[in-house]
Amino acid sequence: MRGFWGKVMNAPITSFTPTAPEDVAWLGTGPVPAAAYYDPIWYADEISAIFKQNWLQIGHICEVPDRGSFIRRELEFAAASLLIVRGADDVVRAFHNVCTHRGTQLVAAECGRAKTFSCRYHMWTYDGDGRLLSAPDFEQFGLDKADCGLPQVACEVVAGMIFVNLAKQPVQGLREYLGDLAMRMEELPIARATTFSEYHYEIDANWKLTYDNFQENYHLRFIHSRSGAAAFAPENPFGYPAAFGFHGEHRTQTLWSNPNPEIKQLQTLGFMRGFAALVAKGVVPSDGSNASGSRDYFALFPNFFLLGTPAQQFSHSVYPLGPEKSRGVIRLYWVGADSTPSERYAREYSMATARDIHAEDRGVITAGQRGLSSGALAHIHFQAQEALCRHLYNGVAARVNAWRVKKGDVG
C-alpha cells in the first residue's frame, strides 16, 4: 500500500538509509524485563498509573453528528461505562453511564439520539448536559437536583477524535499533552471524516505485546512476505521506516516508499477504482504530491496509533483486558459517503486487506505471549529499528515506577 501510492502518485523517492543505532542509543540498548509483559502486579500498576490517568481515544465526532447524538463505551480495565453526548449547546461531553440515585446504568444502547436519559429503575431523568431534570417524589430525599447530575469525565476533541481522561483532575489538557502533534493531525483527512469501517478483535496477549507488533517493521519480511511484498526492495529489504520522531511520551515514524513496488493486479483494481473519487473530494491531491502527513504514523501514548495515508486513515487502539489479554479496535475513516459503486468497492477492499494482513499477525503475537508467560526468559531485546517499542516500554516503566514511589511501594 505504501509503495503503491509512491508509484502511482509519482511522489519523490530518495535512497534509503536506516536510522543509525547511535541515533536512538539515548533510549537505551540493554535488555528489557520480560515480566512487564505478563506480571499481574505490574499490570495492575499500569492500569492505576497510566490508563486511569491518561487521555484515551475512544471515538470520533462523526459518531455524534447532531445535538442529542450519543455513543456508549465500555472500558473494562476501569470497570467503567461511559456515555458520550453532543449536548444542546453542540459541545461533546462524557459522563459515567450511572444513575446518581443508586448506580444503575442508564443506557444499554451502543448509540442513538435522545434529548433525555431516564433510569428504568426509578425514572430519574437527565438531559444531554448531564443535569438531573426530574425524579419521582424527589422531595423525600432532601437533596438539591443541582448536586445530582451525572458524574462528568474529562473529554476533548482533536482532529475529530474524541478523547477522555478518567482522572478527576487531569494533569494536562489534551492539546497541551499532544503538543505539535495535535496541529499535525488536524491537517489529516481524519479531522473531517464523516464515516468509517471498523472491526474489533480480542487476543490472548498483553496490550504492549499486541501494540508493539504494529510499530515495528522488522517482522514484515517474514510474516507478511506475500501481502507486504510491495514494501521491500534491495536497498531496504526489511521495509524499515524512513525516519523516527519522539515527542515526549508520543512517537512518530515516516513510512518508506518503495520506488519500484510489485503491485498485484487485484491491488491495482482495488485502489484505482476509488482513486478518482478520492481526488475529487480532496483527500488525495490531484497534482500527484504527497499530502501533509501522508506517510506519517502517529503513536499516542499509551495505546493509540494513526496511520495517515492519503487513501485512507487507519487507526488502531489496543485496550488492556488483563495481564495476558487485550482488545483491538481498528478503524478506516472516510470523508463522505460512497458516491459510486467503484468507491464502495475500494473501501470494502481496503478493510478486507487490513483484516487479511492482521490475520497473519495474530498467531505470532499469541505465540510470543505464551513464551513470555512461561517465565523462561528474564529479559527480551529490542534492536535499533525497534526503537518505538523500546520508547513505549520506557514510557510505561517511568509511569509505573513513579506511581510506586508515590504510593510508597518501592524496593
Walkthrough of the structure:
With 411 residues, this protein is α+β, with helices and mostly antiparallel strands. Helices cover 27% and strands 25% of the residues. It contains ten helices and 19 strands. It has helices spanning 2-8, 40-51, 174-178, 180-186, 207-213, 220-223, 265-272, 275-280, 341-373, 387-406; strands spanning 32-33, 55-60, 69-75, 80-86, 92-96, 111-113, 116-118, 125-127, 132-134, 152-158, 161-165, 195-203, 243-247, 250-254, 296-300, 304-308, 313-322, 325-334, 379-380. A seven-stranded antiparallel β-sheet has the order 2-11-10-5-4-3-6. The chain has a seven-stranded antiparallel β-sheet with strand order 12-18-17-16-15-14-13, with helices on both faces. It is globular, with a radius of gyration of 23 Å.
Secondary-structure map:
Layout: H1 2-8, E1 32-33, H2 40-51, E2 55-60, E3 69-75, E4 80-86, E5 92-96, E6 111-113, E7 116-118, E8 125-127, E9 132-134, E10 152-158, E11 161-165, H3 174-178, H4 180-186, E12 195-203, H5 207-213, H6 220-223, E13 243-247, E14 250-254, H7 265-272, H8 275-280, E15 296-300, E16 304-308, E17 313-322, E18 325-334, H9 341-373, E19 379-380, H10 387-406
Antiparallel strand pairs: 1-19, 2-11, 3-4, 3-6, 4-5, 5-10, 7-8, 8-9, 10-11, 12-18, 13-14, 14-15, 15-16, 16-17, 17-18
Helix pairs in contact: 2-10, 7-9
